[in-house]
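Hi R.,

Here are the chain sequences for the assembly we discussed:
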Amino acid sequence: MTKTAGIIVIGNEILSGKTADENSAFLARELRDLGVDVRKIAVIPDDLQLIAAEVRLFSQSYSYVFTTGGVGPTHDDLTMDGVAAAFGRKLRRHEQLEDALHRYYAQHLVEPNLRMADVPEGARLIGGQGMWFPVVAVENVYIFPGVPEILRKKFSRIRETFRDAPFHLREVYLRADEGQIASVLHRILASFPNLLLGSYPYFDNPSFSIKLTLESKDAAYVNDAHGLLLTELSKLDLEPVRPA
Amino acid sequence: MTKTAGIIVIGNEILSGKTADENSAFLARELRDLGVDVRKIAVIPDDLQLIAAEVRLFSQSYSYVFTTGGVGPTHDDLTMDGVAAAFGRKLRRHEQLEDALHRYYAQHLVEPNLRMADVPEGARLIGGQGMWFPVVAVENVYIFPGVPEILRKKFSRIRETFRDAPFHLREVYLRADEGQIASVLHRILASFPNLLLGSYPYFDNPSFSIKLTLESKDAAYVNDAHGLLLTELSKLDLEPVRPA
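And here is the predicted structure of the full complex:
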């Protein structure tokens, strides 16, 4: 079975349009590349009950859950509280994280900084050696910060944990109208019902107007479907073009 | 009561990381500017049952729901079907939309193009005169295409429909560590419990390391909170800086 994932972006600043979320697009690309099927992305406010409800639902629905944001020391950082509530656990100060914070802040450490060492009971630390602050995981939930540079660094340290059989992708670019090829696509799906087939119109590209994507975890399946697609398109006098 | 909104982005291409969603960030900014409080963004696959379930839930939860994507003529365009299913309605070919498609495609029209005229029974057309293809709305759900340029044009035609009392925003930039100011922020919220107060760390900006945002629909309230914040910060010898 293909591993699935859900991504929960936590932050009022995204919902109010002050900050554009880059993290979910990054994680979606990385996870796809690893062979993981991302099934849902949710952007929700810094609200303990909403975080808890979403984490609980996602945790039950997908193989992996990734959260981003809400892990700092201020009043609006509620992700750890929300994840704890999702699993009916308490927050507990984690000794190893506390040590890491003491080393990082040294004499500048103030009590609120230590909030970042408060994690749900039974949380695992992943990424281990050489990371000053490891990734905190609870059950199948992996908790990441909202700052994109830090999220990327942390994810790169643990990404191989999630590797699964790869998706095989073929792309076909056409100069045509989607309506013109709709029936061809229906016939392809009739022959290859498990094919992941996407059709995307482009309105401003000089070299093509449709991008078709064919995907499967089975390389032969996607190749056979690709062959049939080219045959069917040629019957309409449509030849794939090279994207500019 | 402040109007609320939810945004549903429909498209496998976003979840598989092939395309980065620009539409939800655009809508979030526009709606905030109009005084509308966006409460949730969901990105979901091109799957009829999932679309129907999400639309139904969002429609019950928020004043307005905006969908993007899934409105073309091919097999993976299931938004109209999903919205219809959400409200237990059937799809019906809409005469005015059918006419618009005939005018647009003229002799190049093929039957699948007309799928774009199939909308849930009782759907309203908004944006009216001068738009070749108006926005389709069903109850409180506004259906937009996924192509960003077209979404923007269409939204601009109907944006005033959603205008509400504005949010008043003050921003304060600091050179400090979030832990250092956490207790100040707690005191501000104790005095101004209805203030929307955000604290965001920046790690790579040369002129500041924290951005604070203070917001309310009540201008006097946000001004008073801002005054108290400056007083409290000065007690810590912290002066706001100007962002570069």
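The domain at 4-162 of chain A is CATH 3.40.980.10 (Molybdenum Cofactor Biosythetic Enzyme; Chain A). Chain A has two domains: 4-162, 168-235.

Let me know if anything looks off.

Best,
T.
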